[in-house]
Design goal:
It is a single chain. The chain has about 475 residues and is of the alpha+beta class. The chain is about 40% helix and about 20% strand. The longest helix has 23 residues. The strands form three sheets. Strands 4, 7, 8, 9, 10, 11, 12, 13, 14, 15, 16 and 17 form a twelve-stranded mixed beta sheet that branches. A three-stranded antiparallel beta sheet has the order 1-2-3, with no helix packed on it. The termini are far apart. The protein has one domain: Cathepsin B, Chain A.
Amino acid sequence: MNKSIQLLLGAGVFISMGSQSINAQVKGGITPDMMNQIRTSYHATPTNRALGNAIRNVSIQDIAKNSDGHIKLDNFFSDEVKSKGITNQKSSGRCWLFSGLNVLRAKMIDKYNLDAFTFSQAYTFFYDQLEKSNLFLQGVIDTSDKDMDDKMVEWLFKHPLSDGGQFTGVSDLINKYGVVPSEVMPETYSTDNTRTMARLISLKLKEYALELRQMAKDRKTSEVIEARKTDMLGVVYKMLVLNIGEPPTHFNYTLRDVDGKVVSSGDYTPKSFFDKFLGEDLTHDYVMLMNDPTRPFGKLYEIDYDRHVYDGYNWTYVNLPIDQIKKMAIASIKDNSMMYFSCDVGKAFSREDGTLDLDNFDYSDLFGVKFGMNKRQRIATFSSGSSHAMTLMAVNLVDGKPTKWKVENSWGEGPNDGHLIISDQWFDAYMFRLVVNKKYITEETKSILKQKPIRLPAWDPMFADEE
């Protein structure tokens, strides 16, 4: 006797599944006639058979690689900010931090004629993780009257801690805690490999968050809750010290130029070191420019709760057409000033020669399929977004127009001495954010900064942290 299973699909549509056959009358499914039509659309020509054999046995990228593409992207640039050495974030998502500190180290090297000087990423990262922990716990306290399925509460519990970020984090952290040279607080295994440390601290933070919500439900006073939060942060501090080391509150340091001559020697705090040798107002002297064609240009935007420090600033940016951003980037490079730059680095990226170019790979000819979405469509369909931050340092101008760009990366040594070369067409397609000193922005951009920002939610997918 045949037994059948009745499956309910949608609103009142049933499929009877017997041991001999399946009788489906569901509009929108692949019918036998449709399957025949799909099959006949493929023609087993000698060319297709050869392509299939190759693609099944070799990397698609290796087959699609345009071997002539790198010729136009040589290492000559008409305008370039010089740098020395290359940094390496290793297995961590700290590109935002390396990029921000690399902007500052370039200024430091140029100003004092130094060798390959670097700031301590470990020092700033320590406070980044501590401040983000406080941001999460305080956010839980602030939303303790909301249900667990509230959108903001859900977002907080999904993002208690990360090693990613963006330039606002760099500016807030340095303004609050200063900087130290890399020799004063060197990298550790846990800063180079952040995953396990972040997972364990995140787990503890979520446990603490549930406790804080219960305290609020039990109507504990704000003073009692604040005291308990401070105790919790003490545990996080201990975990960070065990992984990274304890940040110095003061240190003795001798700064020498490229010839070994003493520039300065003395006892510093991290804040006094920054103030003495750089002394910039990173919060107010710089502005983030965005190229997001899914939203109106000429507007000022602010991302709700997207910051590294609770008492810091939300991520705010001006949305502009790409050509306007290029003009300000060129002005900065010509004045010997690097910039924080973020993009969708995984697209059309040739690792073997360190280039980002739309002509690096020809997938369309390989498959006989046109990939036709523009930048706006890629963003809207979650096909593209900013994924990595680097330091923009060079442009090649021909008759006043850019043909290619160069960035200082933080992936250690590699092609082009660890730098990436970008075609101007790729820049148009996959560049998203640029942070420039306000002295290079246009009067029109200055007027936009006076607008009341349009507030966007923290969970907007366009604003994931750079890693």
